[in-house]
Design brief:
The protein is of the alpha/beta class and 214 residues long. It has helices at residues 19-28, 43-59, 70-76, 90-97, 110-118, 143-156, 171-180, 189-192, 197-208, and strands spanning 7-10, 33-36, 63-67, 80-83, 102-107, 123-126, 162-166, 184-187.
């Protein structure tokens, strides 16, 4: 996974911070991977927000991924979809979105990783790193040691797949995660809840050693 897309931003609908404004802010700051996650919204709302988010993503040459919903990803012309373990089969999703689509899958343990590898996903969102209130029905927390063990086993079994850390990550976690070999990190509240979200974007990039793209 290239450094310019290694930091993935996931939208989180807030009354005081519109998802479209979130995307505009992080894209302007140099983040080039956007995942639209609007769990509780209707299909019409997802499409309405999605059209704006897709437009902003294209303006900044950013990857635009839709969480869970393959049909909406197809209708919006998204670059791909991220699927939870209880969502549509990635193989079936690829038949809808096409061979060039980016398909990501959520994992919590090595067995999940092995399943996703067999399903030929392009990357794995492994987590949660620690407790996070952003996601309901949270899987068991992995922690740094859990990532180490899973990455080591992937290397032993010659599973060549990009693993992105997700779930409750703070700035101080980025260097240790990068140090053990994760391909990227996915963040949401780390940016949204910051007193100065734009400054936080810059801080994350600097910690990850990501060069901001003008």
């Amino acid at each position: 996974m290239k450094d310019n897309v290694a930091i993935q931003f996931i939208t989180d609908p807030r009354l005081d911070f519109d998802p479209v404004d979130q995307v505009e802010l992080v894209c302007a700051g140099g983040i080039r991977w956007i995942q639209m996650r609007l769990k509780k919204m209707s299909r019409q709302e997802k499409l309405r927000y999605g059209k704006e988010i897709r437009r902003i993503s294209r303006n900044y040459n950013s990857i635009f991924i839709v969480n869970d919903d393959v049909d909406i990803a197809s209708e919006l012309g998204a670059d791909g979809v991220h699927l939870g373990l209880e969502d549509q089969d990635p193989v079936a999703a690829r038949t809808v979105l096409g061979a060039s689509a980016i398909i990501g899958g959520t994992c919590n343990c090595y067995d999940d990783i092995l399943l996703r590898h067999r399903q030929q996903v392009d990357y794995i969102g492994l987590g949660p790193y620690r407790f996070t209130s952003t996601k309901k029905k949270l899987s068991p927390v992995i922690g740094l040691e859990g990532y180490k063990k899973n990455l080591q086993r992937c290397r032993q079994e010659l599973l060549n797949i990009s693993i992105v850390a997700i779930g409750g990550i703070v700035v101080a976690d980025i260097a240790p995660l990068r140090g053990i070999g994760v391909a990227g990190i996915a963040v949401s509240s780390l940016i949204i809840d910051a007193p100065d979200p734009a400054a936080r974007v810059k801080e994350i990039q600097e910690e990850f050693a990501c060069k901001t793209i003008p």
